[in-house]
Write a structure and sequence with these properties.
binds nicotinamide-adenine-dinucleotide; globular; 9 helices; Rossmann fold; 34% helix; Dihydrodipicolinate Reductase, domain 2; 340 residues; nine-stranded mixed β-sheet
Length: 340
Amino acid sequence: MKIAMVGLGYWGQKILRNLVSATGAQNVVAIDASVDRLSNVAGTYPGLELKLDLDDALADPDVQGVIIATPVESHGVIAKAALRAGRHVLVEKPMAGTVEEAREMVALAEERQLALMVGHTFLFSPRIDLLGHYLNTGHLGKVHYVTSSRLNLGLVRHDANVIWDLAPHDFSIIFQLLNETPVSVQTAARQVLGGVPDVAFINMQFPSGIIASVTVSWLAPKKVRDLTIVGEQRMVVYDDTQNDEPIKVYDKGVVIPDSPDFGEYQLTYRYGDTVVPHVSAAEPLGRQISHFLQACETGTVHISDGWFGLKVVEALHAADLSWRLDGEPVTVSDYARLGL
Ligand SMILES: NC(=O)c1ccc[n+]([C@@H]2O[C@H](COP(=O)([O-])OP(=O)(O)OC[C@H]3O[C@@H](n4cnc5c(N)ncnc54)[C@H](O)[C@@H]3O)[C@@H](O)[C@H]2O)c1
């Protein structure tokens, strides 16, 4: 089985490294519209087949899967060409720049019974697995709210604003952990550096009543990758910038008295232990590529499939629309009711 890999830029080269280590260079067709990019990777991985155009790779019957890491505006066109040619697809996040395009991709994959997977890389992180375990086993108790911040100075992108570029990470993590998608999204954003928002504050309400707040920025003094989940029993802080102790579980909370007669001054605060669990250091991107290679064998995607990617795109669209409407809350359409 061969895999065609389209787009060999910043992120594509990281994917290529993992792909070559999983399959061997002789089973990879590397594709980029830039000759310079092709000659870069040719020097690093001898034995790679190189092409300027995906169509040439699709003519090879041994190519069973296509990985797409081009700028977002070309995701839909390339993914649909690959699906129409009967190939399984892994497309980078966000899966498309519009809800319509994302829906067409999902519909095509369903119709052709092909695997469509979206590169929400954090969902393959052992750190997110552990947070999911805490939530699924009730370790945190009933969840009240989630906050997430993804800040740095740069990298400013030209193919997307900061919402479409960074928020897919926070949205995918939060939707996966809570196992639900928001009913309503409200955004305040500013265009400080150029023509597109570079900082955004996004608030979300979920059907369960949980609320979440996501801050994304290309214009911040230091790198922040923080997610906090506040539950009735425990609270957890996940700091993705930390290599050794990325997750801390705080046995903290407020005990509310049973009797309604007690006033607020009767609340007691619980300060228990802080636990720092061991988390596997397995590289998420390596796990993501293995998952896709399996999906190419079985035709089934278990994590981050096209439907999930579509939900993320719907929420991104709602968040983007809200700031354009001066922060008016936008109701996220229920993708299941849209007749796909
Ligand atoms: N999952 C993650 O954590 C993560 C991180 C960074 C970027 N990304 C995503 O990866 C994608 C690529 O981002 P990047 O930063 O690598 O971009 P980039 O600009 O560095 O690279 C894009 C590459 O695609 C090539 N290309 C563009 N159109 C093409 C076409 N039609 N056919 C063949 N090649 C084409 C360009 O020549 C370039 O080499 C984006 O969708 C981005 O959102 C994901």
